[in-house]
Amino acid sequence: MRVHRHEGNEGHHGIDLAPMLDFVLNLLIFFIIITSFVKQTGVKVLKPDAETAEHRDDGNILIAIRPNGDIWMDRRKVVLPEVRAMVERMHAERPEDTVVITADKTSETGVMTKVMDQVRAGGILTVSVATRGQGD
Amino acid sequence: MRMARHSAVDEDEDEDHGIDLAPMLDFVLNLLIFFIITAIFVKEVGLTLSSPPPNNQAKQNNDDSSTMYIAVHANGDISIDQRLIDKAAVRANVERFHGEKPEGPVIVVANTKSPSGIVVGVMDQVRLGGVMNVSVAPTDCGGTR
Q1: Which of B4, B35, B60, B88 is most buried by a 10 A CB count?
Q2: Could you tell me which chain A residue has the CA closest to the CA of B16?
Q3: pTM score > 0.80 for this model?
């Protein structure tokens, strides 16, 4: 009887989980917020090479242009006039975001410049084109 | 007597501990792992695209020579001053231009049918040549100049 009581007491006073729980919850909130920031395009394209490429930390809105001229945004295919409305909406949500166009190497320049004009019309003036720089 | 005292102690200890946090902790950890896996850390590297200033047409008439034009044709050929050149020669040409006119901008006049990879490559070469003020102007015609 005496032995049993002694063991029981020790078992109850294990490690204090509260700080770890706080930490894990913070991590959780961090990752939930991070996931909603970047607007992925949903397609993979072959990016052109460049040596003078720069990192853009605020380039969270991605627009992909496939070799056949299809435009992908926010995980679905869009037509050119839609780009402006979507950019306007995203710009209203997070005004500090900028646009990165991931155009395939072989896609036509005309599509790229048209998309760029649409983005400008949508209110985001900083547009860059994604490359495969030294960073990758 | 002993038994009674023991059960009293047990009860006290139960009250101290309150709700069992273990299932909630398991759930939160699962959520955490889910979000870590789905989190995407894409940070694209890229070149900033700019279009030529709108008053370019007026400028062109005044001091034509202060701007360098590089044409990219529909088939991906590159030419400067109607002279067909190799992609590797772009940098040397730009360096020479930059030496003569350090403030002069470079405009890549790209045919709308030209592959964007070539245009981006030319922009990269221009930047390597020292001119950061580079813009892309689309054109439907053959891209003379």
Answers
A1: B35
A2: A12
A3: no
Range of the structural domain that residue B35 is part of: 2-41
Is A41 within 8 Å of chain B by CB?
A: no
How far is the C-alpha of A86 from the C-alpha of A99, rounded, in Å?
12
| Pairwise CB contact (< 8 Å): B25 & A27 | no
Asked whether residue B36 falls in the same domain as residue B65, the answer is no
Query: Tell me, what CATH number does B77's domain have?
Result: 3.30.420.270
Q: Which CATH topology does A41-129 take?
A: Nucleotidyltransferase; domain 5 (3.30.420)
The strand pairing partners of B88, in sequence order, are none
Residue B76 sits in the same domain as residue B99: yes
Q: Which residues have a Cβ under 8 Å from the Cβ of B137 and sit 6 or more positions away? A: B51, B52, B56, B107, B108, B109, B110
Query: Each residue of B95-114: pLDDT tens digit?
Result: 999 999 888 889 999 999 99
Report the relative pairing of strands A71-73 and A61-65 from DSSP bridges: antiparallel
User: What is the per-residue pLDDT for B61?
Assistant: 47
Instruction: State the Cα–Cα distance between residues B134 and B105, nearest whole angstrom.
Output: 6
Which residue of B41, B109, B116 is the best one to mutate when testing the A interface, meaning the one whose CB has the most A CBs within 10 A? Answer: B116
Chain B hits for A54, CB-CB cut-off 8 Å, are 45-48
Q: How many domains are contained in chain B?
A: 2
pLDDT digits (tens, 9 = 90+) for B11-35: 455 555 677 778 888 888 888 888 8
State the ipTM, two decimals: 0.72
